From TrEMBL, chain A:
This is Trm112p-like protein. PANTHER family: PROTEIN PREY, MITOCHONDRIAL (PTHR33505:SF4), ZGC:162634 (PTHR33505). It comes from Halovivax asiaticus JCM 14624. It comes from the Archaea. It holds the Pfam family Trm112p.
Automatic annotation (TrEMBL), chain B:
Pfam families: Methyltransf_25 (PF13649). Residues 39-100 form the Methyltransferase domain. One of its GO terms (molecular function) is protein methyltransferase activity. This is HemK-related putative methylase. Keywords: Methyltransferase, S-adenosyl-L-methionine, Transferase. InterPro entries: DNA_methylase_N6_adenine_CS, Euk-Arch_PrmC-MTase, Methyltransf_25, PrmC-related, SAM-dependent_MTases_sf. The keyword S-adenosyl-L-methionine applies. One of its GO terms (cellular component) is eRF1 methyltransferase complex. It comes from Halovivax ruber (strain DSM 18193 / JCM 13892 / XH-70). The lineage of its organism: Archaea, Methanobacteriati, Methanobacteriota, Stenosarchaea group, Halobacteria. One of its GO terms (biological process) is methylation. Belongs to the eukaryotic/archaeal PrmC-related family.
Length: 63, 192
C-alpha cells in the first residue's frame, strides 16, 4: 500500500487514527503493522494489502 | 502463482458482469461532472469498476473487499486496496464518492453455500442484508457534498432501498436502468 493511503484509514473499532510500524518497503509498503493510536489494536499489512478487519472477523473465511 | 491456482481463485472472486459494467459507466458519467476528488469502491471484487473509473478519470481511487482473494486480484490491477468490512476502516469525511455493487440476490438461508461466491452474491432472505448496514454507515466517510452510486436490482426491492436511503439522510435519483427478463438493474445516485 502507498503510505499516503494511511490518510484515509482508521481503526475499524473506534475510528481513531492508525500509525505505521515495522514497515518494509518505502513509499509502497509491502508489509508492516498498523496500530491504533487509541486502543492499540494491531492490523497486519501483507502483500501490500492492509487487513483492517476487526480481530473477530479476521479468521472468518468461508470454506 | 500457476494457472491452476489462478483458475481456482477466479471461481471465488466475482468477475465483471452486466451489473459491473452498468455501474462503471454510470459512475464515470456522474463523477465526470464533479471536481476531481477521491472515490472508494466497496466490495470491489476483481477491481473492475474501480479500475474503469481510474482509467477514465483523474480521481484518486481506493478499493476494498472482505474477500482476501478479491483484494489480491484488485491489487494486481494496480489499485490501492484495503481488506475491510464496508466503510468501517475509513476515516470520517474522506471521500467525495462511494461506489458499491452489493450482494443483492435474495437467498434462502437453508440453501446458502458457505463460500466466497455466496458472500459476493447473497443479500440474505430480503436481498438487503448488506445494503442495509452499508446505507446506515456510508454517510460518515463522505464529505458534505459527497455522493453514493449504488447498483440496485428489482429483486432487492427498489422502494425498500430508497426508503432505507431516505432514513440515512439521502435522496435517491435513478441515473440509469436496464431491464432483463428476470430483473431490472438500476444505478441510484444518493445525494445528502
Amino acid at each position: 500500500m502507498k503510505e499516503s493511503l494511511l490518510d484515509v484509514l482508521c481503526c475499524p473499532l473506534d475510528k481513531h487514527d492508525l500509525e505505521l510500524e515495522d514497515a518494509v518497503g518505502d513509499d509502497d509498503v509491502e508489509s508492516g503493522t498498523l496500530v491504533c493510536t487509541e486502543c492499540g489494536e494491531r492490523y497486519p499489512i501483507e502483500d501490500g494489502i492492509p487487513n483492517l478487519l476487526p480481530p473477530d472477523m479476521r479468521e472468518e473465511t468461508p470454506a | 502463482m500457476d494457472l491452476a491456482e489462478r483458475r481456482g481463485m477466479e471461481t471465488d472472486v466475482y468477475q465483471p458482469a452486466t451489473d459491473s459494467r452498468l455501474l462503471a459507466e454510470a459512475a464515470i458519467d456522474r463523477l465526470s461532472d464533479r471536481p476531481t476528488g477521491r472515490v472508494l469502491e466497496v466490495g470491489t471484487g476483481s477491481g473492475y469498476v474501480a479500475g474503469q473509473v481510474r482509467s477514465a478519470l483523474e480521481w484518486d481511487v481506493v478499493a476494498s473487499d472482505l474477500n482476501p482473494n478479491a483484494c489480491l486480484e484488485a491489487r494486481d490491477r494496480g489499485l490501492d486496496v484495503v481488506r475491510g468490512d464496508l466503510v468501517e476502516p475509513f476515516g470520517a469525511e474522506r471521500f467525495d464518492a462511494v461506489v458499491f455493487n452489493p450482494p443483492y440476490l435474495p437467498t434462502d438461508p437453508s440453501v446458502e453455500r458457505d463460500d466466497w461466491m455466496e458472500v459476493a452474491l447473497s443479500g440474505g432472505p430480503s436481498g438487503r442484508a448488506v445494503v442495509e448496514p452499508f446505507l446506515e454507515t456510508v454517510r460518515r466517510v463522505l464529505r458534505p457534498d459527497g455522493v453514493v452510486l449504488l447498483l440496485v436490482s428489482s429483486l432487492t426491492g427498489m422502494s425498500d432501498v430508497t426508503e432505507l436511503a431516505g432514513d440515512a439522510g439521502f435522496s435517491a435519483i435513478a441515473v440509469t436502468t436496464e431491464s432483463f427478463p428476470y430483473e431490472s438493474l438500476t444505478v441510484l445516485e444518493l445525494i445528502q
